[in-house]
UniProtKB/TrEMBL annotation:
Keywords: Methyltransferase, S-adenosyl-L-methionine, Transferase. Residues 70-203 form the S-adenosylmethionine-dependent methyltransferase domain. PANTHER family: SAM-DEPENDENT METHYLTRANSFERASE. This is S-adenosylmethionine-dependent methyltransferase domain-containing protein. Gene3D superfamilies: Golgi alpha-mannosidase II (2.60.40.1180), Vaccinia Virus protein VP39 (3.40.50.150). One of its GO terms (biological process) is methylation. GO terms for molecular function: methyltransferase activity. SUPFAM superfamilies: S-adenosyl-L-methionine-dependent methyltransferases (SSF53335). InterPro entries: Glyco_hydro_b, SAM-dep_methyl-trfase, SAM-dependent_MTases_sf. The keyword Heme does not apply.
Length: 293
């Protein structure tokens, strides 16, 4: 089951081709590389006049070429949520707009549950898109964990922009595996767990993360802190070469094995491309959700 983030007003994937995508972030046009775009670029005058163009370096990394003046950061809206956007040195902007499809699903699931006691854990939480979605939907507590202090501070800005400062959100800078182990020792549990693991990463103290080696151990560890009456479990992945079936099987052998009162789904997640009426693939997801029966 594929999901497309089609309800944006402040974001638009205008076009994609020849390894790049052309995007509108409110009033700012950015041109960025995308390894999934292997089809050719079609003629479009907007390709030649973005506000900024990110160029990859042959030696690794890359840099922005600024063609028009604009602020270092600005705000985009998604419904009642507000997020700071800013071009970073590693091509990202602080927001993955395709995740809006998951935000919609999480908000609908939380609101539809009718539960007021929900504790949500967001691992590899980045700048907090899912954190803000769950808090705004009425989760009693959201715990936001990321190894980068800078990203956690950015998430705190998004909390203020979204006027969620009166909601119970805990921001934690930590290695996710170590945090989950400590939560087990404390006897804390969560009704919903979200994770968006990178292919490779480092924790705040140099801990090494390799998704192919540590994703299953992490999900297994999370089973120890998943409440006996859970609502959902969601895993995102941007790892090239991982089909959705990988996440389906991981959830089937962990959450699905222990909790038979739910359903598992997996698929691609993407963005609509305005020019050409097609979809830009942006990663995969797998989710377990409790049956409403």
């Amino acid at each position: 089951m594929n999901q497309v983030a089609k309800h944006w007003k402040d974001y638009e994937c205008i076009d994609a081709g020849s390894g790049e995508k052309l995007e509108r972030w409110k009033d700012i046009i950015l041109r960025r590389p995308d390894p999934q775009v292997i089809w050719p670029m079609e003629e479009n005058s907007m390709w030649n006049s973005p506000h900024a163009h990110y160029h990859r370096s042959k030696s690794g990394g890359g840099s922005w070429e600024y063609k028009k003046k604009f602020k270092d950061s600005w705000t985009v809206s998604y419904g009642d949520l507000r997020f700071k956007v800013s071009p970073t040195g590693f091509k990202h902007t602080g927001l993955f707009p395709e995740q809006a499809a998951n935000w919609d699903w999480m908000m609908d699931t939380i609101q539809g549950s009718g539960r007021e006691d929900l504790r949500v854990l967001n691992l590899f939480a980045y700048t907090g898109g899912a954190t803000m979605a769950c808090a705004s939907a009425g989760a009693a507590e959201v715990v936001h964990v990321d190894a980068s202090k800078g990203m956690v501070n950015w998430a705190k800005e998004n909390m203020m922009l979204s006027h969620l400062e009166n909601h119970k959100i805990r921001f934690i800078v930590d290695d996710v595996l170590k945090f989950v182990a400590r939560e087990k020792r404390r006897g804390r549990t969560y009704h919903a767990i979200i994770m968006d693991p990178p292919s490779y990463g480092r924790g705040p103290n140099g801990e090494i993360w390799k998704i192919e080696e540590q994703l299953y151990p992490l999900i297994s560890a999370c089973m120890e802190i998943l409440d006996d009456d859970p609502l959902f479990f969601l895993v995102n992945s941007y790892t090239t070469g991982f089909p959705p079936t990988v996440l389906y099987n991981l959830l089937r052998t962990t959450v699905g094995k222990k909790h038979c009162n739910g359903a598992i789904a997996a698929g691609e997640i993407g963005l609509p491309i305005t020019t050409g009426d097609s979809v830009l693939p942006c990663g995969i997801y797998g989710k377990w959700v409790r049956d409403n029966k």
